[in-house]
Predict the 3D structure of the following.
Amino acid sequence: MSNNQMGDNQWWNDFWTKNPGASESSKNHEPTWDGLCWIAQTQFWEEVFGQFASGREMLECGSGTARVSRHFARHGFNCTMLDYSEEGLRLGQNAFQSEKLPGRFIVGDINNIPFPANTFDVVFSGGVLELFDNVSRPIQEMTRVLKPGGLFAANLVPRKLSIQTIAECERTLVHSARNLARGRFRDAVRVTRFPPDGYYISRATLADYVETCRRAGLESVVGLGTSPFPALALPAAARRFYARRMKALMPWWRRFNHSQSKWTEWWGITYAIYGIKRDSVKS
Ligand SMILES: C[S@@+](CC[C@H](N)C(=O)[O-])C[C@H]1O[C@@H](n2cnc3c(N)ncnc32)[C@H](O)[C@@H]1O
């Protein structure tokens, strides 16, 4: 069973076949928007895992090419990757093998995780929970397979007003100007959207996710608005300048990501949610 609004795993098999490097950040020495977002995200989870993970057995649900698990496998976590896309898992497995990292790759549905209760110290998902209209089932399943005291961790890109919504005005103007200059008049009147058309993202709020986590049996649940810098459509020189400014602001970025203020929840482009499984949860 899958309540993923983009349908069954065929959508994702096609996606990973067409975009095998889609979720990998660039390896340029020059700072880039996606490279810096990746660094800020992994630093954030390193800090949360360092503070709350009770052990090193980690499950990533909806792992795709397993870039997050690969990072934590390099830091000594024993990673199991679950995804219902065989193609995503195949790419992840190749990447693990090329670095000689140990890891288990399991084809399965996050709504029905094929592991017994109380198995993992950390259960993580990135870019997955927002794909479901009813997020209770995946969160209950992720919590079920956690050991008591284990860490639930998720990040996602919500459908909401954020600094990225405002940045879409700039992106639309730049794309229109470029298309006009190339004589592509039909494309010039198209508005760029975030998330793009055809990519389902639920309307759940941060409060909805936090409440669902509590009901599933998690305590000390923290929900945060993260990622303060929007993607912009800039010419190459301005793009390099923007990335250098972002890099200089990394210490502030780190504080932003951990802040629990209302304005960072509004401004942030992504959500990060974590919590600890209560001892008393019935499996
Ligand atoms: C946006 S990608 C994120 C991949 C990876 N976590 C990352 O951050 O690069 C979403 C992934 O979730 C997987 N997925 C979606 N619905 C799923 C389900 N019901 N069960 C298991 N995996 C699922 C897709 O196959 C895809 O690989």
Notes: The chain has eleven helices and seven strands. The radius of gyration is 19 Å. The longest helix spans residues 33-52.
